[in-house]
């Protein structure tokens, strides 16, 4: 066998080994999220690493030890479980501020995170940046008045900081997490409020109109329709955080059960709304059968 064939076979063998080997930490390691002067919004999932705490026993002092340093993995390597169960997730990420501004905003864009604790690294350890949640504290204690969890971050230009966050929720969900500039965040908020106001206004008009029909025509089906629409509306605002922000902001314990309560009530109302129509269809079919015989 010639030297050319030997080198060719050896090259193929080396390439096969390199392709077979796992990508390793160099390929999977997450990099710091870099902020610059053009940044308006960045998805944090490009730079976060996670550890699942199914038993909810880990503390910050545990998660920041060298033993846990290699247990954090990127989100794509997490095996998510289906169903509803209470679980905790620890998140680690690094932010490098390459811009000339120091004020940024961190958003967890899901209102039903039961508990949320965020810590930042300092020379003396880790200090809390945010401690709260959908069922922990009243809404008015939040620093930023927003239906999602929005936290002000002060990161000096040309520096990088490491953050840890602990999120507890009713399921293995990974909510959207973003870093915003303040102007872009509040511009988005105004657009959202306008659209939500239009949507809720249309639903309220439908409710009032059908309530007027119920009092005018005395038909029970309109009453069940109004109840179903009202409960659906309340269920919707409990899911997207508007209910906790404006209606029951002082009752975090009610905020925990409000969504299943309103949704269940809407389902029962819909059943009673459609029951007379189902009975009418059955009666019609029986009359057709009798006529046939």
What do these coordinates show?
The protein is an alpha+beta fold and 293 residues long. The protein folds into two domains: 28-182, Immunoglobulin-like; 188-292. Helix content is 45%, strand content 24%. The protein is built from eight helices and eleven strands. The protein has helices spanning 3-20, 24-28, 60-63, 66-69, 182-217, 220-239, 242-246, 252-292, and strands at residues 33-35, 41-43, 49-53, 73-74, 86-97, 103-108, 115-122, 125-132, 149-154, 159-170, 177-181. The strands form two sheets. Strands 1, 3, 4, 5, 7, 8 and 10 form a seven-stranded mixed sheet that branches. The longest helix has 41 residues, at 252-292.
Q: Provide the helix percentage.
A: 40-55%
Mean pLDDT, nearest integer? 84
Kindly report the CATH topology of the largest domain: Immunoglobulin-like
Please indicate the count of domains.
2
